[in-house]
Amino acid sequence: MQHDKDAPLRSDAQRNRERILEVALAELTLCPDAPLSAIARKAGVGQGTFYRNFPNREALVLEIYRHEMRQVADSAAQLLEQLPPDRALRAWMDRLAEFGMTKAGLADAIRLATSKGGLTKPAHTPVSDAAELLLRANDRVGSIRPGMTPDDLVLAIGGLWQMAPTDDWRPRAARLLDLVMDGLRAGAPGAGGPAVPS
Amino acid sequence: MQHDKDAPLRSDAQRNRERILEVALAELTLCPDAPLSAIARKAGVGQGTFYRNFPNREALVLEIYRHEMRQVADSAAQLLEQLPPDRALRAWMDRLAEFGMTKAGLADAIRLATSKGGLTKPAHTPVSDAAELLLRANDRVGSIRPGMTPDDLVLAIGGLWQMAPTDDWRPRAARLLDLVMDGLRAGAPGAGGPAVPS
DNA sequence: ACCTGAACACCGTTCAAGT
DNA sequence: ACCTGAACACCGTTCAAGT
Q1: Cα A69 from Cα A64, distance rounded (Å)
Q2: CB of B86 closer than 8 Å to CB of B138
Q3: Which of these, A18, B122, B147, B177, is most buried using a 10 Å CB contact count?
Q4: Taking CB atoms and an 8 Å limit, are B172 and A186 in contact across chains?
Q5: Does B155 share its domain with B104?
Q6: Residues B145 and B93 grouped into a single domain
Q7: Are A51 and A100 in contact (CB under 8 A)?
Q8: So what's the pLDDT on residue B3?
Q9: What is the pLDDT at residue B108?
Q10: What is the CATH number of the domain that holds B31?
């Protein structure tokens, strides 16, 4: 019989799961295609135990990704309390870039793992919730064009994920985000018409 | 002795190489992680012949990528003859999106293959040449902000490569490119000052 | 109920033998 | 000079046997 879905794990199983996640985060950040067997070994569990917790590489990687991303996403609310909406939006994107660069290996691991099967549409992630929060706050003060969706914003900063962290990524990211912010401000109710009057 | 670098291939070897590329393009477009052994088999060559031509998966994928991308990149000059610079730029980005969606499998194959080793900085690709051409044409008529680099443009449209082709990608791509164009126009000499006057 | 680790399947890569 | 295909190494996944 399989495990009851809502029942708590036995304490040793719980510990095993946490150790796997801990080791996997470190290993995958260093090397996106670290062997799962190596992760299991370093976590001190057998192959079978690993697969009981995570049926495949994608399941492991997505769990780590969601956990890490949630931390950044959650900072959006905090930024909105400290800064005007447009500056909060920009500051949040800066944090996303910073996060992406330190976790570049993890981002590669995600792409490696998720390109295999079907494309997992994340739909309602913490990130899109955060984006929604920031966009609506800006809408309220008229600092950006109306009608922007979280999807729009995520696509607009998509270039961040194809930068290598080794380079002089900071000025490049800054130039990208400056461009995005200018695009967002174009057509804002508070800015007096479109950037190119007709 | 290895092969002389500039000497032409023997005709049968030449044919083999072309058949491998032909089969690989079709297979990788369908399935980004198609086994190299399957590609060799369908191309009618032995494993060794395959590896003589392409020492690893990355070498194969990059060659295909460059070949396919060159076609799109080369259309930039043609567009500039038919349209004003800003419309040519936008039309080129549309083509890039169209191309990316039909070749989504290939794009995944590239990520799969290149995330393994070091990050291969393509540096001077046909795409960055085309971007340079389009940006400078726009600079000359003052339709976009000055100083944009090909790298800036490539990053700005980076979101295209993280869209799934299954969806209603067309309106999403259009919204992204509209935003990018507005960002580019903000601060253009011909548009009368920045989008947000201080 | 959970764990271990050997066993199996599969794919990338090499290489001895052929033409 | 180029080709073939068997052989090897490695990693993901399963499963019989243990606690």
Answers
A1: 8
A2: yes
A3: B177
A4: no
A5: yes
A6: yes
A7: no
A8: 54
A9: 86
A10: 1.10.10
Q: Do A111 and B112 touch (CB under 8 A)?
A: yes
Q: How many domains does chain B have?
A: 2
Residues A126-160 have pLDDT tens digits of 999 999 999 999 999 999 999 999 999 999 999 99
Please name the residue that has the structure tokens 């962290």: A165
Q: Which of residues 115-154 of A touch strand C (CB under 7 A)?
A: none
| A78 in the same domain as A27 | no
Instruction: Classify residue B195: in a domain, yes or no.
Output: no
Asked if residue B85 and residue B157 are part of one domain, the reply reads yes
- Hits for CB < 7 Å against strand C across A residues 52-71: 52
Whether residues B30 and B109 fall in one domain: no
Q: How confident is the model at residue A177 (pLDDT cuts 50, 70, 90)?
A: very high
Nucleotide nearest to A59 (CA to C1'): D12
Which residue of chain B is at minimal alpha-carbon distance from A31? B116
CA distances from A61 to A105, B22, B64 (A): 11, 34, 29
What is the gyration radius of the CA atoms in chain A, in angstroms?
20
Q: Are residues B48 and B67 in the same domain?
A: no
| Whole-number distance in Å between B118 CA and C1 C1' | 44
Nucleotides of D under 7 A from a protein CB: 1-7, 10-16
Q: Alpha-carbon distance A80 to A98, whole Å?
A: 18
Give me the amino acid identity at A28: L
In tens, the pLDDT along B140-194 reads 999 999 999 999 999 999 999 989 887 789 999 999 999 999 999 998 897 654 4
Residue B8 lies in a domain: no
Q: Is residue A1 part of a domain?
A: no
Domain housing A24: 13-55
**Nucleotide with the nearest C1' to B52 CA:** D2
Q: Of residues 39 to 98 in chain B, which lie within 7 A of strand C by their beta carbon?
A: 47-48, 50-51, 55-57
